[in-house]
From TrEMBL, chain A:
<dbReference type="Pfam" id="PF00005">
    <property type="entry name" value="ABC_tran"/>
</dbReference>
<dbReference type="InterPro" id="IPR013563">
    <property type="entry name" value="Oligopep_ABC_C"/>
</dbReference>
<dbReference type="InterPro" id="IPR050319">
    <property type="entry name" value="ABC_transp_ATP-bind"/>
</dbReference>
<dbReference type="InterPro" id="IPR027417">
    <property type="entry name" value="P-loop_NTPase"/>
</dbReference>
<keyword id="KW-0813">Transport</keyword>
<keyword id="KW-0547">Nucleotide-binding</keyword>
<keyword id="KW-0067">ATP-binding</keyword>
<dbReference type="GO" id="GO:0005524">
    <property type="term" value="F:ATP binding"/>
</dbReference>
<feature type="domain" description="ABC transporter">
    <location>
        <begin position="278"/>
        <end position="518"/>
    </location>
</feature>
Automatic annotation (TrEMBL), chain B:
<dbReference type="InterPro" id="IPR035906">
    <property type="entry name" value="MetI-like_sf"/>
</dbReference>
<feature type="transmembrane region" description="Helical">
    <location>
        <begin position="73"/>
        <end position="101"/>
    </location>
</feature>
<feature type="transmembrane region" description="Helical">
    <location>
        <begin position="233"/>
        <end position="258"/>
    </location>
</feature>
<feature type="transmembrane region" description="Helical">
    <location>
        <begin position="194"/>
        <end position="213"/>
    </location>
</feature>
<dbReference type="InterPro" id="IPR000515">
    <property type="entry name" value="MetI-like"/>
</dbReference>
<dbReference type="InterPro" id="IPR050366">
    <property type="entry name" value="BP-dependent_transpt_permease"/>
</dbReference>
<keyword id="KW-1133">Transmembrane helix</keyword>
<keyword id="KW-0812">Transmembrane</keyword>
<keyword id="KW-1003">Cell membrane</keyword>
Length: 543, 275
């Protein structure tokens, strides 16, 4: 079968302008080759900065701001896209090759109805008439499983959910009957329970319309469900290229092996001892407009253990952390810490009470003052709580930096001069400097690449062994829960759905929500998506 | 930052400001004649003994211009520094504390801004004794309302960041949060604003002097010199235009520097990203 898209010796460069130095040319992508056959799906996978989006966009002969395609060829049906002029390229984009962006919310014009936007490209390119385009849009809405497909096109982007918007964008890409679609992390920004619906819809639609696709993602488990071949990228170079089966089951490169085994951290559950550190009793909290974010939440956390709080976005997990820290005083209920009740609001608490509960944030970028050096960031709690100054403070900062596996040479850097993983480590060191008994971790790994996140989790576990600190770990990732938790609390719409030791919460019998949540987490297994969908369909048929 | 990355326009501004400051600092040494010394006939043309001619009372215009730089820059600088200290302290306190304090400060500020500045200044200065420190104080208070507005806006953006929340959770006081967490992150836009307000202060002082409520004679200041010599324009004598030109020149120089600072600091990367 002839190749639909064939990329050879691709080279992509960009020019950077460091202040006060002559401009430099940076090579982003080099020596990349791959082919996509008709109706097949190729997955591009790699960590951030691997060049996967940049490569994906070359299928449209497009380079984002300042990026230039300087070498190689990109052949679509034997025609080199890089040699086409602007008019020729325009005939390809949005017609033969379409693009689905990560953030559908940002990609739709909020001032126009969805239906108009979905058929716009088909009309502009003269692929079909209005009546035919509308018919095709309706067909696509049905294939993608959108609710009330007849009237869906009448709605505005803000009137539908994030998952539906992502599917609408897929419909927009499929509408002109393209030969190839580029999916750029279409499910990364969605909740796990929504992600599975969108994945299934995309997969179904691709099969139904026999369209070829490039699927870009950083999650190997997702790509395993939807693609035929996988290309693993790192630093703009090819690491491994093969069929899904080969990559998942018999990876040949170390980097691929690391990616496949990334969820390898496991930890035995500790018995629930009576020595309770944190006890949250019947908490109800909300904002002044009367909306209750948390309702009657009760849970407890023993000393030296980890409690994982799971749930999708909007379930109240982060609000629970804010209530415990005192930033949002609860309307009802009490919180006790180490046997004594905590004052409800931050202002009522003593410095020692504050010291014993520390917090780690999701975005380490915004959690650290960009104008302070690492030394100041870590050193401040030392001065504030322990009155350390001068040489003793320097010594302790160095010690803490060793503890987070970074070393004293980082002390004089600013946060902007650290990588994402290093920033999160410094944030951990800042929390550790206070020598707390409880650290609230608000999704500390969800903004990081899988391998980096793995390192952070290992560090947290190591620190727990060393200092016997307790963690309340907020996450939406069940794999992390399995890896590090002793007890688990499942939250849904502000209520505690399930709470108990990990072994009990994560084994049947399940309540409906926990069941849905657990089944929605992609597993590194070919055919997992079909299996889940079959059980779901059987259940709904049974009802 | 390197010297070679400073654009030519900014160099022109810097040189202009340095020249004015130099004149202000060493006025008695540079000026050929005294500040209020009558050295010749009224409104002598340029050239000869008097580089820029003489004014309406026969004083050397060049000497008065140099002495005038002293008063003009001193008063404008003092008023700007004072208005910034006051405006920033109040606005940051409002942004960090929030609630009632924020509302009270902000609504009072709106009240002050509702009254036209010049009319307010004229009324107040006409009532109060004519002393230099009162003039500076009135200018500072009136200007601080503008500083308050921008200060509160930039501080609010920073006050909701997680590192400020982290500082609150640590138990830090309002002082630490204002001076150590928020101030360093708002310094760039405020610095640019400082330059702008300094230029406005010079103009405002000149306006007041022109109306007779600013610097009192015989002390020289640029606005007052325009007023003294304004009648000469009818007779085709350009003496009033020279101090006027000096005001315009200094204002332009300050703005050139500020433009460059704004360009450097308006980038989201804190001004380190682009040159």
């Amino acid at each position: 079968m002839p190749d639909l898209l064939s990329v050879r010796n691709l080279k992509i460069e960009a020019t950077s302008y460091p202040p006060g130095e002559p401009p430099k040319t940076v090579t982003l992508v080099e020596g990349v080759n791959f082919d996509v056959q008709k109706g097949k799906v190729l997955g591009l996978i790699g960590e951030s900065g691997a060049g996967k989006s940049t490569i994906g966009l070359t299928a449209l002969a497009y380079g984002r701001g300042g990026v230039r395609i300087t070498g190689g060829e990109v052949k679509l049906n034997g025609e080199d896209l890089l040699k086409l002029g602007p008019a020729g390229i325009r005939k390809v984009r949005g017609c033969k090759v379409c693009y689905v962006a990560q953030s559908a919310a940002a990609a739709f014009n909020p001032a126009h109805r969805l239906g108009e936007q979905v058929i716009e490209a088909s009309l502009k390119h003269g692929v079909m008439g209005r009546a035919e385009a509308e018919k095709r849009a309706l067909y696509l809405f049905k294939v993608l499983g959108l609710p009330s497909p007849e009237t869906f096109g009448q709605r505005y982007p803000h009137q539908v959910s994030g998952g539906q918007l992502q599917r609408a964008m897929t419909a927009m890409a499929l509408c002109p009957n393209p030969e190839l679609i580029v999916f750029d992390e279409p499910t990364t920004a969605l909740d796990v329970t929504t992600q599975i619906d969108v994945l299934a819809a995309i997969k179904h639609a691709i099969e139904e319309t026999h369209t070829a696709a490039l699927y870009i993602t950083h999650d190997l488990a997702v790509v395993a469900q939807i693609t035929d071949d996988i290309l693993v990228l790192r630093h703009g170079k090819m690491v491994e290229y093969g069929s899904v089966k080969q990559i998942i089951e018999a990876p040949t490169q170390d980097y691929t092996r690391a990616l496949v085994n990334v969820r390898g951290t496991k930890r035995e559950e500790a018995p629930d001892q009576s020595d309770t550190l944190l006890k949250v009793d019947n908490i109800t909290a909300g904002y002044s407009n009367g909306f209750k974010v948390l309702q009657n939440v009760s849970l407890h956390l023993p000393k030296g253990q980890t409690l994982a709080v799971v749930g999708e976005s909007g379930s109240g997990k982060s609000t629970l952390a804010r209530v415990i820290t005192g930033l949002l005083p609860p309307q009802e209920g009490t919180i006790s810490f180490d046997g004594t009740p905590l004052p409800r609001a931050l202002k009522g608490r003593t410095n020692d009470q504050l010291r014993r509960i520390q917090m780690i944030y999701q975005m380490a970028d915004t959690a650290m003052n960009p104008r302070q050096t690492v030394r100041d960031i870590i050193g401040r709690p030392l001065t504030f709580y322990y009155g350390l100054r001068g040489a003793r403070k320097t010594e302790r900062v160095k010690e803490l930096l060793e503890q987070i596996e970074m070393g004293g040479r980082f002390a004089d850097r600013y946060p902007a001069e650290l990588s994402g993983g290093q920033k999160q480590r410094v944030a951990i060191a800042r929390a550790l400097a206070a020598q707390p008994e409880l650290i609230l971790c608000d999704e500390p790994t969800s903004a990081l690449d899988p391998l980096v996140a793995e390192g952070i989790l290992k560090l947290l576990l190591k620190l727990q062994d060393e200092t016997h600190v307790s963690y309340m770990f907020i996450t939406h990732d069940i794999a992390i829960v399995r890896a590090i938790a002793d007890s688990v609390a499942v939250m849904h719409r502000g209520r505690l759905v399930r709470f108990g030791p990990k072994s009990k919460v994560l084994s049947p019998p399940f309540d409906d929500y926990t069941d849905l949540l657990l089944k929605s987490v992609p597993e590194m297994e070919i055919g997992w998506l079909e299996k889940v969908l079959t059980t779901r369909r059987m259940e709904s048929a049974g009802n | 930052m390197r010297l070679s990355t400073i654009p030519i326009s900014a160099w022109v501004g810097i040189l202009g400001i340095l020249l004015a400051v130099f004149c202000a600092l060493f006025a008695p040494l540079i000026a050929p004649y005294g500040e209020s010394q009558i050295v010749g006939a009224v409104w002598q043309p340029m050239g000869g003994d008097h580089l820029l001619g003489t004014d309406n009372l026969g004083r050397d215009l060049f000497s008065r211009l140099i002495f005038g730089a002293r008063t003009t820059i001193f008063v404008a600088l003092a008023a700007t520094v004072l208005s910034f200290s006051l405006g920033m302290l109040l606005s940051f306190t409002a942004a960090v504390t929030g609630g009632f304090v924020d509302q009270a400060f902000s609504r009072f500020n709106d009240l002050m801004m509702a009254i036209p500045t010049l009319i307010f200044a004229l009324v107040v200065l006409a009532v109060l004794p004519q002393q230099l420190w009162i003039l500076i104080l009135v200018m500072a208070v009136l200007d601080s309302t503008r500083v308050y507005r921008i200060g509160r806006a930039v501080a609010l953006d920073v006050a909701v960041m997680e590192f400020v929340e982290a500082a609150r959770l640590r138990g830090e006081g309002t002082g630490w949060i204002i001076f150590r967490e928020i101030l360093p992150n708002t310094l760039s836009p405020l610095l640019a604003e400082f330059g702008l307000r300094f230029a406005f202060s010079i103009l405002f002082l000149s306006t007041l002097s022109f109306l007779g409520l600013g610097i009192q004679p015989p002390a020289a200041d640029w606005g007052g010199m325009v007023k003294d010599n304004k009648d000469g324009i009818i007779f085709g004598i350009s003496a009033a235009l020279i101090p006027g030109g000096a005001i315009a020149g200094l204002a332009i120089c300050v703005n050139l520097v500020v433009d460059w600072l704004m360009k450097r600091t308006s980038s989201l990367k804190g001004g380190r990203g682009d040159a």
